């Protein structure tokens, strides 16, 4: 069912797909298959591109809509929470790039690994993380996925195969190659997706990692999420060749419309098969972030507002799914609006729940630096500070280091911010 | 940060009589640079400055913050030396902390330019540029990002040893690496670290950290014109907070010369950068309880001014060192060891170190981690009452 045809640079959604057919709606079962054509053909380097026709089901299409709406809403809410100073630290939002997370998840299993940089909130959700865990982590609460000790840039979910959010640009890619080696060594039929941005694509360690992956035929897929700006620097200012899918030279690559979840799905499915058979592959996801690089970047000084609104109107990943749902008569516009309302409520509830979660106990400052009893004890140092002390800080830290059981009994929780 | 304004202003005229050339050769570093490659211009600047000093004595500048002072220094550096260049991630747009605002417009894109996100490349490139006799002023966006440049090849293995291993044929003395360091209140793991101690383990480079805008300007200009590669860490917490009058003209402050910024008789406190304002508050509190504290700004960590600290400790008999970096293996350990070697019989109490804790820099626990005023005050008391 080839519904969508592309022509212009901005790759507008086909108007044919925009019409809705409220009266023709029919109940669907998950066994129904729908074939969707990707927005544009894949561009391949050193390999044969996969077909543009992607198989999906009504259930998957609807779940894409709901999941993507959740991600979008979560990021908007995180933006407000940051402005309200409930989220501190650095915070990088994913809105605009959701199709990458959604499409990738649809093509792989939780046994496959994903590792990324600091723009990690939505990938975490995709790997099965919950909204409460996400918001709690953002606000530095105990219920967070990293116990409130990581913050926005450091989301992890081990059982979901999510090896996390890493802080240093490009540094996660060599780690991903290590994951892939482990997978190959243990003869698993699983692969690792190592994500990085167009800015990170110029880091030297990427090429070291790529060489190792190719040399040893590791099941690693390097995913360049090209949102066209490394912080405030447009890709063409930072890269002699912004064709990141070709950067691997001897490693095959594929350029994908990263605003089209089905193109991403198709590409990831292809990449997984390829990587298991032949070794690494580079996927360049042509995507876009609506927000600035981080919360201190308004995102409007190095690009025009027209550019942002143009992408929103013509390439938005959520709108694309909405139009597909409507054109396949799987739901009415009102039903989709209702889903969005539900999502909004879920997000609000999660925030309320996250706010209820306490800050981590002060002793957590010292846990996980080393394995317990296998590293340096901090208490000596604290005792040194506290020798002649009557200070609130020391009483509290000493209390805190005496362990969680005694501490939990105290009604008045210690907030680090109130200690001084 | 009002307390910074209370720091006694550096004595301008007296400092310049012993500007970097003389003081550095006294310590056996950077003896006269040979054959007019990068660097030999120290004396030339010192003279110019003395003349300027005479001309402009008594003139005061505008009240500006630390990033504007850095910006002024960079303008002067590029203006006074046509072979000076500024480059780094996003610098031609002004940089994330606005330190390089206006430079690209004034000096052109050939001299002020953005680099890709590749720290190792930035520093390696800077070494090459400096080796051809230019002044390469590289910016690493956060000190936390300096490690790719550190561990692979550049700062430790290339820059620091270039002069030594080439028998003085080559050097990268014109290289200055600027990087914002330290806590900002909510920076978390990768935007708050203080990596100065790593670099203090590397003979061949200098490590400099200013405490306030006027110091930042004078020290940065000295670093840029110093004939050795310098790592210049800027306290990002003070970029906007520290405001004071900064002379508008070109001036340099000597490297490797510590400054007593508060005189006292009971205990010597040594620190650098943003931590000094915290230490000063502790000194004020201690004063109320009758403890007279002497506060020293080390300014240059490598090679550091042992004499000033030694003289002070011989006077007070006690020493406290404070820095944000974790205590174990921090630069405080080096100061402590050196002073114990030199002043063993004069010490009346063990040297106290109030530093960051031995944990990764935390996000929500930052107030616990930091060497706060209360921790310092407590240590002052216990050291004095030892």
UniProtKB/TrEMBL annotation, chain A:
GO molecular function: pyruvate dehydrogenase (acetyl-transferring) activity
Source organism, top-level taxon: Eukaryota
The keyword Oxidoreductase is assigned to this record: yes
Catalytic activity: N(6)-[(R)-lipoyl]-L-lysyl-[protein] + pyruvate + H(+) = N(6)-[(R)-S(8)-acetyldihydrolipoyl]-L-lysyl-[protein] + CO2
Residue stretches spanning the membrane: none
CDD domains tied to this protein: TPP_E1_PDC_ADC_BCADC
SUPFAM superfamilies according to UniProt: Thiamin diphosphate-binding fold (THDP-binding)
Disordered: region residues: 294-313
GO biological process, one term: pyruvate decarboxylation to acetyl-CoA
Dehydrogenase E1 component domain boundaries: 66-362
Residue spans of biased composition, Basic and acidic residues class: 303-313
Coiled-coil region list: none
EC numbers: 1.2.4.1
Subunit-structure text: Tetramer of 2 alpha and 2 beta subunits.
PANTHER family referenced in this protein's UniProt entry, alphabetically: PYRUVATE DEHYDROGENASE E1 COMPONENT SUBUNIT ALPHA, PYRUVATE DEHYDROGENASE E1 COMPONENT, ALPHA SUBUNIT BACTERIAL AND ORGANELLAR
Listed name of the protein: Pyruvate dehydrogenase E1 component subunit alpha
TrEMBL record, chain B:
Catalysed reactions, semicolon-separated: N(6)-[(R)-lipoyl]-L-lysyl-[protein] + 3-methyl-2-oxobutanoate + H(+) = N(6)-[(R)-S(8)-2-methylpropanoyldihydrolipoyl]-L-lysyl-[protein] + CO2
GO biological process: branched-chain amino acid catabolic process; response to nutrient
Residues annotated as signal peptide: none
Ranges for region Disordered: 19-39
Gene Ontology CC: mitochondrial matrix
Transketolase-like pyrimidine-binding domain span: 64-241
Keyword Oxidoreductase: yes
SMART domains hit by this protein: Transket_pyr
Keywords of this entry: Mitochondrion, Oxidoreductase, Transit peptide
Record's subcellular location: Mitochondrion matrix
The EC number(s) this enzyme carries: 1.2.4.4
Entry GO MF terms: branched-chain 2-oxo acid dehydrogenase activity
Pfam family, any one: Transketolase_C
Cofactor: thiamine diphosphate
Oligomeric and partner information: Heterotetramer of alpha and beta chains.
Name of the protein in question: 3-methyl-2-oxobutanoate dehydrogenase (2-methylpropanoyl-transferring)
């Amino acid at each position: 069912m080839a519904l969508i045809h592309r022509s212009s640079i901005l790759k507008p959604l086909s108007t044919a797909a925009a019409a809705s057919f409220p009266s023709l709606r029919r109940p669907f079962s998950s066994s129904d298959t729908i074939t969707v054509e990707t927005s544009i053909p894949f561009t391949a380097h050193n390999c044969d591109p996969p077909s543009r026709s992607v198989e999906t089901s009504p259930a998957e299409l609807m779940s894409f809509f709901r999941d993507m709406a959740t991600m979008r809403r979560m990021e908007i809410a995180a933006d407000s929470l940051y402005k309200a100073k409930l989220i501190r630290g650095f915070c990088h939002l994913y809105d605009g790039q959701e199709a990458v997370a959604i499409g990738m998840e649809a093509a792989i299993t939780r046994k496959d690994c994903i590792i990324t940089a600091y723009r990690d909130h939505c990938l975490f959700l995709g790997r099965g993380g919950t909204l409460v865990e996400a918001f709690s982590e953002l606000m530095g609460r105990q219920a967070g996925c990293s116990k409130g000790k990581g913050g926005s840039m450091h989301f992890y979910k081990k059982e979901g195969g999510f090896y996390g959010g890493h802080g240093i640009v490009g540094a996660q890619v060599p780690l991903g190659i290590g994951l892939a080696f482990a997978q190959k060594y243990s003869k698993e039929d699983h692969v690792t997706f190592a994500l990085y941005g167009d800015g990170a694509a110029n880091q030297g360690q990427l090429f070291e990692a790529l060489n190792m992956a190719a040399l040893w035929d590791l099941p690693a897929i390097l995913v360049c999420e090209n949102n066209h700006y490394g912080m405030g620097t447009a890709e063409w200012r930072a890269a002699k060749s912004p064709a990141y899918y070709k950067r691997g030279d001897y490693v095959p690559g594929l350029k994908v419309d990263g605003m089209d979840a089905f193109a991403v799905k198709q590409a990831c499915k292809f990449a997984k098969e390829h990587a298991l058979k032949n070794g690494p592959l580079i996927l360049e996801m042509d995507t876009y972030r609506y927000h600035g690089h981080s919360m201190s970047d308004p995102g409007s000084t190095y690009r025009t507002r027209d550019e942002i609104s143009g992408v929103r109107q013509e390439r938005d990943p959520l709108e694309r799914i909405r139009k597909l749902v409507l054109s396949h008569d799987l739901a009415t516009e009102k039903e989709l609006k209702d889903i969005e309302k539900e999502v909004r409520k879920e997000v609000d509830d999660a925030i309320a729940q996250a706010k209820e979660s306490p800050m981590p106990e002060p002793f957590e400052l010292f846990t996980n630096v080393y394995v317990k009893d296998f590293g340096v004890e901090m208490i000596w140092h604290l005792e040194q500070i506290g020798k002649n002390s009557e200070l609130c800080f020391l009483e509290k830290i000493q209390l805190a280091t005496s362990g969680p059981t005694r501490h939990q009994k105290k009604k008045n929780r210690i907030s680090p911010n109130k200690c001084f | 940060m009002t307390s910074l304004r209370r720091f006694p202003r550096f004595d301008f005229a007296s400092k310049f009589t012993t500007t970097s050339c003389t003081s550095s050769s006294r310590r056996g570093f950077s003896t006269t640079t040979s054959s007019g490659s990068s660097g030999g211009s120290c004396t030339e600047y010192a003279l110019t400055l003395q003349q300027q000093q005479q001309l402009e004595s008594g003139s005061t500048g505008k009240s500006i913050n630390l990033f504007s002072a850095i910006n002024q220094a960079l303008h002067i550096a590029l203006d006074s030396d046509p072979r000076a260049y500024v480059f780094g991630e996003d610098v031609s747009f002004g940089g994330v902390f606005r330190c390089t605002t206006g430079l690209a417009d004034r000096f052109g894109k050939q001299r002020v330019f953005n680099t890709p996100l590749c720290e190792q490349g930035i520093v390696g490139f800077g070494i090459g540029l400096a080796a051809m006799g230019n002044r390469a002023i590289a910016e690493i966006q956060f000190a936390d990002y300096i490690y790719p440049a550190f561990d692979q090849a550049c700062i430790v293995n290339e820059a620091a040893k270039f002069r030594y291993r080439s028998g003085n044929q080559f050097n990268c003395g014109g290289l200055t690496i600027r990087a914002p360091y330290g806590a900002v209140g909510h920076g978390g793991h990768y935007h708050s670290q203080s990596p100065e101690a790593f670099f203090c383990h590397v003979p061949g480079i200098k490590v400099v950290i200013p405490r306030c805008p006027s110091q930042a300007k004078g020290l940065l200009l000295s670093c840029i014109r110093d004939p050795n590669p310098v790592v210049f860490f800027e306290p990002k917490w003070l970029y906007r907070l520290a405001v004071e009058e900064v002379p508008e003209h070109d001036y340099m402050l000597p490297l490797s010369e510590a400054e007593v910024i508060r005189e006292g008789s009971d205990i010597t406190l040594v620190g650098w950068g943003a931590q000094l304002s915290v230490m000063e508050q502790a000194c004020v509190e201690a004063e109320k309880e009758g403890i007279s504290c002497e506060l020293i700004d080390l300014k240059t960590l490598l090679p550091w001014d042992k004499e000033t600290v030694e003289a002070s400790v011989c006077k007070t008999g006690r020493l406290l060192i404070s820095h944000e970096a974790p205590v174990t293996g921090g630069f405080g350990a080096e100061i402590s060891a050196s002073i114990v070697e030199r002043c063993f019989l004069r010490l009346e109490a063990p040297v106290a170190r109030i530093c960051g804790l031995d944990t990764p820099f935390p996000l929500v626990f930052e107030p616990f981690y930091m060497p706060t005023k209360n921790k310092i005050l407590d240590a002052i008391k216990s050291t004095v009452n030892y």
